Amino acid sequence: MQIKSSIAIFSLCLFGLLGSAWSATPTGAALCVTCHDEEDLPDMSKSAHGFSADKRVPDCITCHGPSPTHAKKPADVSERPHPDRMFIRKFALPANERSAVCLGCHNKDPKRALWAGSQHDNADIACNSCHKIHGNRDKVLGKTTQPDVCYTCHKEQRAQMSRPSHHPVTEGKMTCSDCHNPHGSAGPKLVKRDSTNDTCFTCHAEKRGPFVHQHEPAVEDCSICHNPHGSTISPMLKTRPPILCQQCHTPHVAGGVGAVGGQGGVAALVGSTSAGKNVVNIWQGRSCLNCHTQVHGSNNPAAVSPGPQFLMR
Ligand code: HEC
Ligand code: HEC
Ligand code: HEC
Ligand code: HEC
Ligand code: HEC
Ligand code: HEC
Ligand code: HEC
Ligand code: HEC
Ligand code: HEC
Ligand code: HEC
């Protein structure tokens, strides 16, 4: 007989399990499902861990242990002993031991190579804090359903994502794992690549440069100026210019306060009022960005250093 569909394989295996349950004293996983039938447990037949002809796929015992006294309650005890390994509720194994069960099989993928000692591992978050085994739909794997899983613990990020200027996560076009590897990272804050910037460049490649004139903070870390989740200040800025820029620079316009070298250039560019003050009020319009349009770096060949930079396209 040639079996073509996985459904056929599934029913064959389930039949195999139940078959042995009918024919002789059931053992192993077949014993478990005599009590834990489909009425008791949610259907997981279509999940990656559903009964399968594939020997690599775990069954009840691989994860929960053989649990002999649980499956066959000894006559001399009043209450049924617990199974060997539980993953939820009061008698669950410690987080690292629960994760060890999963890592027994899932330790080869490079995506999970940095799990040990990662922020989640250190905080006693286990694989099953995010992944649901019993069921056909693991919410954390779905692009649109994933954020809700994360938000159960990370409430602040939900608030940030609902600010007016945000990455389109609430719109379902992006998800947390587009930027984070929740299984561990060589970069800060579990970012997906080895650094925050490399993570941003996966989608915003045009910001990578290299530029003739680099702007140091943009080379260092995009999140110096941007909140990657969301902000009330567009586009996702942590602070509004000019304050954003004045964290590092002395203002050189608006009445000549704190003039720096280059004041003449500014005057030439913007002209002067009859009172002799610069006409541009840095608190208006796009502030510093009225003139410095290229804050991520510029290839303007007219720029001389030190001198005007990040000015024109
Ligand atoms: C003779 C019936 C029977 C058999 C066989 C049986 N169980 Fe159970 N199991 C129970 C009962 C009853 C409970 C308690 C259900 C409850 O409290 O809701 C339970 C609970 C559990 C729980 C949940 C414990 C918890 O509270 O988190 C797990 C896990 C479990 N069984 C796994 C297994 C595994 C694995 C096998 C096979 C090795 C197995 N069971 C075989 C009857 C059985
Ligand atoms: C891949 C590992 C794995 C396999 C295989 C597995 N379980 Fe579980 N089981 C878990 C985890 C993790 C939980 C915690 C709830 C969840 O993730 O859905 C759990 C929860 C349970 C519970 C408690 C459910 C509840 O909501 O109260 C029972 C009962 C149970 N398993 C029995 C079984 C039986 C019977 C089988 C075989 C048909 C089985 N498990 C196969 C990992 C596994
Ligand atoms: C006996 C080996 C084994 C164990 C133990 C095991 N898995 Fe798996 N798991 C597999 C196999 C095989 C697959 C399907 C092939 C693949 O994607 O690698 C799979 C797939 C998955 C997937 C991908 C599902 C999908 O739809 O793509 C997730 C998530 C997962 N396992 C999580 C877990 C978690 C969490 C545990 C511990 C509670 C666990 N596994 C324990 C073997 C195992
Ligand atoms: C903080 C939540 C979280 C925890 C904890 C977690 N995962 Fe995941 N896992 C995810 C998310 C999100 C995805 C989907 C995106 C991705 O592949 O990174 C995923 C995907 C997977 C996949 C399938 C994707 C693939 O690589 O094809 C497997 C297998 C898996 N996780 C296993 C594990 C194991 C094993 C552990 C524990 C050592 C674990 N996960 C802990 C969130 C988590
Ligand atoms: C069960 C609770 C829980 C879930 C679910 C969870 N996390 Fe976490 N997460 C934590 C804890 C606890 C820490 C470590 C303490 C901290 O920094 O907040 C952490 C740390 C982090 C960090 C690193 C923070 C830092 O300061 O280095 C990131 C990023 C993160 N989680 C993202 C996610 C994403 C993305 C998801 C969903 C795929 C997720 N988490 C799901 C509890 C959780
Ligand atoms: C566009 C990329 C991106 C997306 C999408 C994203 N994050 Fe982040 N996240 C980051 C970066 C970058 C940092 C580090 C920020 C920093 O260093 O100030 C971070 C930091 C965090 C932190 C650590 C606390 C903090 O603010 O420093 C948590 C927790 C977190 N993210 C959770 C999430 C969750 C949950 C989601 C999905 C709802 C998500 N992130 C979506 C890029 C992203
Ligand atoms: C997975 C792809 C992806 C990654 C990774 C990513 N972004 Fe984005 N980014 C987007 C998308 C999609 C938009 C929305 C574009 C639109 O609405 O037209 C966006 C928009 C933006 C905007 C402009 C928002 C606005 O209101 O115009 C900023 C700023 C931004 N991203 C910064 C970052 C930073 C900083 C990082 C790294 C922490 C990053 N992005 C990582 C996809 C990504
Ligand atoms: C010095 C502060 C600063 C740093 C650092 C910075 N940005 Fe920006 N970014 C801004 C400002 C200000 C704007 C608004 C520019 C405008 O309106 O002309 C902006 C706009 C954006 C936009 C939307 C408009 C556009 O130009 O596409 C994206 C996307 C963006 N930044 C991505 C990044 C990425 C990726 C990094 C890291 C490589 C980064 N930014 C680093 C200040 C910064
Ligand atoms: C985190 C600190 C920081 C922030 C925030 C910052 N810069 Fe810079 N900026 C620097 C550093 C460092 C340099 C290179 C050293 C220098 O020349 O002063 C630089 C260089 C410049 C230059 C070129 C200076 C020259 O000598 O040619 C301009 C113009 C500039 N920044 C404008 C801005 C604007 C506009 C903003 C706000 C959108 C801003 N910067 C935000 C740190 C910062
Ligand atoms: C009206 C246009 C204009 C505005 C607004 C403006 N700048 Fe400039 N800026 C210039 C010009 C032109 C130069 C080059 C001057 C020169 O070198 O002769 C310059 C030079 C600079 C330099 C380099 C100074 C140096 O030592 O050569 C920095 C840093 C700078 N601006 C930051 C800012 C910041 C921060 C703001 C907002 C608070 C701002 N600029 C607002 C036009 C402007």
How would you explain this protein's 3D organization?
By secondary structure, the protein is mainly α. The protein has three domains: 1-85, no CATH class; 92-208, no CATH class; 239-313, no CATH class. The chain is 28% helix and 1% strand. The protein contains 13 helices and two strands, in the order H-H-H-H-H-H-H-H-H-E-H-H-E-H-H. It has helices spanning 6-23, 28-35, 60-64, 68-71, 95-103, 119-122, 127-130, 146-151, 155-161, 196-201, 216-220, 243-246, 263-270, and strands at 165-166, 230-231. The protein has a two-stranded antiparallel ribbon. One heme C binds at residues 29, 32-33, 36, 41, 49, 58-60, 62-64, 87-88, 128, 132-134.
